[in-house]
Amino acid sequence: MSKKMVLIDGHSILNRAFYGVPDLSNAQGLHTNAVYGFLNIMFKILEEEKPEFLAVAFDVHAPTFRHELYKEYKGTRKPMPEELREQVPVIKEVLQAMGICTVEKAGLEADDILGTLAKRGEKEGMEVALVSGDRDLLQIASDHIKIRIPKTKGGKTEIEDYYASDVEDAYQVTPEQFIELKALMGDSSDNIPGVPKVGPKTATDLMVQYGSLENIYTHLDEISKKSIRESLAENKELADLSKVLATIHTDCELDVTWDMVSMQALFTPEAYTLFKQLEFKNLLGRFEEEAVTKNNQKDFFFMTSDLQEAEAAFEEAGKAERAAFLVLEDSGREEDFAALALAAASDKIWILRPQGFLTKEYLTDKLAALAQRGAELSTFQIKPQYAYLKQDGTEQFFDVLIAAYLLNPLKNDYSIEDIANEQLGLMIQSRQQLLEKLPLAKAAGEREEAFREYAGFAVYTIFMAQPLLWGKLQETQMDKLFCEIEMPLTKVLHEMETEGVEVRPEELKAYGDALVDRITELEDSIHRQAGEDFNINSPKQLGEILFEKMKLPGGKKTKTGYSTAADVLDKLAPDYPVV
């Protein structure tokens, strides 16, 4: 059976993904939609092809031999959007982390690299799949080289496949003739001039009738339409130049060996780290457990159901005065209490499982007693855990979820894994990731070990992140907001959810309607002052209106646009009513 090779046009697929996938960015404000879309397309292709060889080719930002022949070559192309440009080095870093060979060479375009590697593979008896959004590469198609053109819309990818026969069916010309078809009609995207007055239909008709550029000129007198005949006669040099510009070179000198493009294990620890930083949560399931960074393994996570060990753990936590805890449930219900994780120091972590004398009631009573002794306790998502604390006040508690939210309120949600990554630079797996890989029939010991790893890292993260988050709250002057509003509010919300809230629906609706009317009034006023309608809730659009259109002072440009943070707008508000 023939071996398979997949070749990917790097910039082309990244560009397609950028425009096909909605805008995404991670917590650092780095745009990631093009990288995410690229990886999804690549994984889809690899799953379908199952190749032994893989390479990705990129263009180099430097003139090629085509620019030397024709200075205006690709001169009509718009500059790459900055949001896409910043993702080019990121995809290269990701591919490198996955052990995927990337190829680029000054003076050559990616098409020439791909064409050369494709023809080399074909000569070696391989089946080649060449992935690009550029139809120029149809000239490379053969019985053993398949051109795969993806189309991504709304995050969904469909792929058109072209062998040589498919090119003929779609364009009425062979792959070799496709070059001369393009030479006749030109290409506005590459600024290949073609022959004036010869459009796609006329060019196709001429190629179908005469078969080649040379034969068209041999029978020039037979072309009945005078304007076309005269344009061809007057622009032969332009047609010949266009053919040279359109022809992909398939015999380039490349320092690429088969060992370099041989498929390796893609889901490496280095790639896992990058996927976590880029927040590609939907792709993390592709990694096997052993691919997760090894330095995450902690040998001081003690899981026990022993009563004496539990007593010692609570005693340690009481002496430390600062501790972290996390109540773990199996389904979010108190009756499904699974464990209490407790941290008294960076290297003292206990996971206490209820069993025998170590009951849920004992553990929760001990936790409540620890709180009543005045220990400073941090946790993640404290609201549902108040049921176990039996405390009225919130002064001694610290919710790392609330703190992380205040520091970056534009994120949709936060997980313990996010906080571990952003605050500690630690890559950990979620409970779902760890346990999903272990079917219920798997040995109990393996499931317990996975649970120990998750619970241990979760409470370790809470303990280690708390002082870092508190310091950042103080730096941003949000410590008072955190202590006096956000934390007490968690208690109020817990009580509302526990006891229920009595409301007068008619009055609540009337108040809501009044708020909507006032908001509409304010929005109309803002739009009038701005001179146009825009999405006020979009920081990007708001920044452009205030600092580009209205020319307000104090604009601070960031990776994602102008900053519209409170400290920026507060300074402008007294002088500019729109703010």
Distance between the termini: 68 Å
**Per CATH, which architecture of the largest domain?**
3-Layer(aba) Sandwich
Count the strands? Answer: 14
Biggest beta sheet summary:
6 strands, mixed
Q: Class of the largest domain in CATH? A: Alpha Beta
The DSSP helix count reads: 24
What radius of gyration results from the CA coordinates?
Answer: 32 Å
Query: Which class of secondary structure composition applies to the elements?
Result: alpha/beta
The overall pLDDT average reads: 86
User: Which superfamily, in CATH terms, is the homologous superfamily of the largest domain?
Assistant: 5'-nuclease
Question: What's the overall geometry?
Answer: elongated
Approximate strand percentage: 5-15%
Helix content: 40-55%
Kindly report the oligomeric state of this protein. Answer: single chain
Describe the 3D structure.
With 579 residues, this protein is an alpha/beta fold. It folds into three domains: 4-261, Rossmann fold; 293-499, 2-Layer Sandwich (Nucleotidyltransferase, domain 5); 505-572, Up-down Bundle (Taq DNA Polymerase, Chain T, domain 4), CATH 1.20.1060.10. The protein has 24 helices and 14 strands. It has helices spanning 10-20, 33-49, 65-69, 82-85, 88-97, 110-123, 164-171, 175-185, 200-210, 213-218, 226-234, 236-246, 258-261, 269-278, 307-320, 360-372, 400-407, 416-424, 431-436, 444-475, 479-499, 505-530, 539-549, 566-572; strands at residues 4-9, 53-57, 101-103, 127-131, 145-153, 156-162, 301-304, 322-329, 337-345, 348-352, 376-379, 397-399, 557-558, 561-562. Helix 5 packs antiparallel against helix 14, helix 8 (175-185) packs across helix 9 and helix 18 (416-424) crosses helix 20 (444-475). The longest helix has 32 residues, at 444-475. It is elongated, with a radius of gyration of 32 Å. The mean pLDDT is 86.
